[in-house]
Amino acid sequence: MRGQSRLIGRRLAQIIPVIVLATFVVFGLLHLVPGDIAFTLAGENATDARIAQIRESYGLDRPFLVQYASWLWNALHFDLSRSYLSNEPVLNQILHRFPTTLLIVCGALSISLTIGIPLGILAATKPESRLDAAVTSLASLGVAVPNFWLAMLLVATFALSLNWFPATGAVAFAKDPAKSILHAALPALALAAGGVAEVARQLRSGLIEILSSQYVRTLHAKGLSPAAILWKHGLKNVSVNLLTVIGLLVNRLLGATVVVEAVFAIPGMGSLIVHAAINKDFPVVQGVVLAMVVVVICMNLLIDILYTILDPRVALK
Amino acid sequence: MIRSVARWAWRNPPAGASLIFLLALFTLALLAPVVAPYAPTTQNVNNALAEPSWQHLLGTDDLGRDVLSRLIHGAPATLYASFLAVSVACLLGIPVGLLAGFLGGWVDDGISRVIDTLMSFPGIVLAIGVTGALGIGLTNSMLAVGIVFSPQLARLVRAQTLVVKQELYVDAARCFGASLGRIIIRHITPNAIQPVIVQITLLLAVALLAEASLSFLGLGVQPPQPSWGAMLARAYNYMEIAPEQMYSPGIAILLTALSFNTLGEALRVALDPTRKRR
Amino acid sequence: MIRLNGLDRRDFLALLGATTAASGSAYAQAAPKRGGILRVSAPANPSSLDPATGGSGSDHVFLYTMFDTLVAFDYETLRPMPGLAESWSYPAPTTLVLNIRPGVLFHDGTPCDAAAVKFNLDRNRKGERSNIKGDLVTVADVTVTGPNQVTIRLTEPDTAMPLILSDRAGMMCSPKAVEERGKDHDRNPVGAGPWKFVSWANAEKVVTTRHEKYWRPDRPYLDGVELAVITEVQTGLRSVVAGQNDFAYQLLPSQKPVIDRAKGLVAVTGPTLYCVQMFFNCAIAPVNDVRVRQAMNFAIDRDEFNKATMNGLSEPAVVTMPSAHWAHDPIMAKYYPYDPDKARKLLAEAGYKDGLDVQAIGFSDQRWQQRQEVIIEQYRKVGIRIRFTNGTVAETSASFNTERKVPVFLSAWTGRPDPTSTYQLMFGEGAYYNAARVAATPEIGPALQATRAVEDTESRRKAFAKLQRLVTENALLIPLVFQFELDAHSQKVKGFKPNLLGKPKFENVWLEG
Predict the structure, then answer these.
(1) How many domains is chain B built from?
(2) The pLDDT value given to residue B136
(3) Is there a single domain that holds both residue C305 and residue C450?
(4) C281-304 in b/e burial notation, b at 16+ Cβ within 10 A?
(5) C-beta atoms of B241 and C377 within 8 A
(6) Into how many domains does chain C fold?
(7) Most confident of A226-230, A278-282, C131-135, C160-164
(8) Which site in A284, B47, B119, C499 is 20 to 30 Å from C512, CA atoms measured?
């Protein structure tokens, strides 16, 4: 346990520099090119004087580092400032939209696991069989398919032709859980293709390695049933691999939902950042990046803790 | 060389098929103006959204342009995009990884921290942000994708360098007073390169998908240049009337990404030193 | 053969050919019913919900729900009608007297009287954050001449003023709310319209609810209007097909067959002032040469453009007003037929024998890219190599209208209630949409003034014909098509009628069942 708390402490100490670095990189990239949101805010009929005035009132005329420092200072006080475009607190926007995106990502993750794990086990128990070949090719397809294309195919089939699912939008989970899940189903399914493939693939290769090891062969010789070996020794050992895959998946899913959200016109984090980045609404972009980094870091932390539970040696390291 | 590749491909049908597919694609891309039955921009609004026929093997699009010709002419842009992104990733990632791995110490610590950070947030989100800053367009968006991918390569190269650095011949070279640059170029690079080649092949597939995504969001290719991602974006607008518009560009993307992946995986096996020894 | 719910491609194409002009929504004879909430899919997030500070032509549909205008307009002809002002008159050419309807209350309970009207008009023409000062430049001062009467003194005769007061400038906000809330009034507005503001989740949804003390006792029928922002119109229509929303507006012509095929959906079409067009910055080479501008007009095949990008459902445009409008000029409308030879000849005369390279900017979404592709191809045939650089609406408008470094801008004009504003804003000296800032010929100024100096429609029509001749002969613009409005709603939506502005109003709408 001491190992774990030390690990958590170390991780937490890392969070701040990572966040600073991440937001600084994004801030810097957005400032690479001249041009800012003043034009957008000024709207039609804007005079140069009005634009200059807007620039001043939003502090856009200050040096880049000063702007960043002031943003960071506020962020450290849990104030993500307000969107230039809507004047709405960024934190509100994120709290409002993140659940929608998280629901889709979690949905995609659970689909990946519920389909990917059995497929991986099946393939591993009969390596080089026809079933294994089928799973392997399915996995290759899953990795290579563009998920927004899959999303389009799903919309065309299940929403527009068959009318089984809504074609667009989202409903807050708190408001109506059933409807909310119905809305998230197709996007999650479209996102899950890569996840299923990745999980099945990793599980298969990990299991095959373990099942062909000397140690397992000894267990066989001892007369343990194959099922018992698989459950007790195979899966337990392979769960560490699985955790790593989950960590990577969450990161990738968060990214991929951006495009899939566009296909379904879902008001989530994806549409938020696309809109904000194109219009140079810096506080919103920063806020979204921050939120995603925090989620990824927390996920990694959780996984690290699980590692130590599964394999106490890790914590001592 | 060619013969051994051919033999390897023959014994490894999926990899062979992928190789053939990609070679064919490159040839098509190079010879696009000669091979394509029509110019990709020739419009015929009286024959819009036509279904496949002998005149138009894959039908026509919303402006009556030949879909097959647009697919063929879209290949160069698509391949260019993938290779541009991966080249940028290599140019940024490999030197940084080599430096980090070879120099070690605080340089390594610093670089590794930056790499971890960049990898801790979703790549495509970052790419969108960068494209927003650089301005919309194929080259800009692919520069962004390249920048986003570079940490992956840097991390891999760093790890490889750490391994190779410990090898005897590097120590020997150092003892003989070889310069840092020479050691990196003559000894470390060639020995660390194999997994990098594999990774590059796999990255090509990821870059292809990223290009399609960004073009789909309208941040990539601009008209009238065709690209597969942009064709899909257009098809999205006609999903109710002509759903078949989204089949061919999607399948083209899928097959190409699949080929890069299959090839990458096969290379991984073929180049894996532990396998050879077995 | 691919079949889509019983409709195959040949049916679809036949249907396209057969569908033409206006088909109003089927009117039920049943009496209007009170109650229910109309759920609308709106294609753009409002720039602001304060009529004075907003800047986007797509805001109006939101604003109309919460704000009543001093002057209303007739849906079909855009002639002025009584609104919050019961009546008005011009006792002298430079004096406009408005008689304000007594007893009108804002949503916060304060009265919308003459003092409030003066407050609003002064704020609109002088307020620091007002975006519509340009609309009221001819106003010299506003005085309260009775509890329910204001007198507007004009710097010059301006008969366009009543219709200008049917736009943003005539939308009345509660003075109390404006003063108390300051900048926050943008996002939390108080008007005197049929519904009052409830909430605005940015880029997501605007919710309004019935104004219990609305001045028209029988209106509104609806308990509330909820406008969901769905920027992809395809997706917007899908939301209506799937029953998540009741109404979607400003749809694309290519969506007509989808509406017709969907069960329980009604398509509404009608002409609008919305014009897809290319703006020139006449101060920049090569389009500072009138021959180049004329060539670029002759080289456009507007029928093909209409067919390719609008499924043939719009009206090819050569002049600034559509044929349904009272100020339309039928003679100038024939000035630029498709004539590639003439275009080539003009280009050669201008010194571009071997072709011409033109830089243009536009918008990056698929709809606009499709239009660009058609233009690129048509121009290629006469040797004009046009290249588009794309960006967001804000970026591109700023680079064309504010920085003024690009010769051509493919964009659209959403229309103004009074034609004088349209011509003034696009061709007047120093006008925002006139990127050259100077009038193309000195005759423009007087011709513009002439359209405001007379009051009766026939004389104004003649004045506009003169102005249009200057615009057309000097090729100050490339109008392409007037977009037809296309709205879709479920069958339970009754009483909806489109208007020539193409910006739906829901005041007469009720829900059945």
Answers:
(1) 1
(2) 76
(3) yes
(4) bbebebbebbbbbbbbbbbbbbeb
(5) no
(6) 3
(7) C160-164
(8) C499
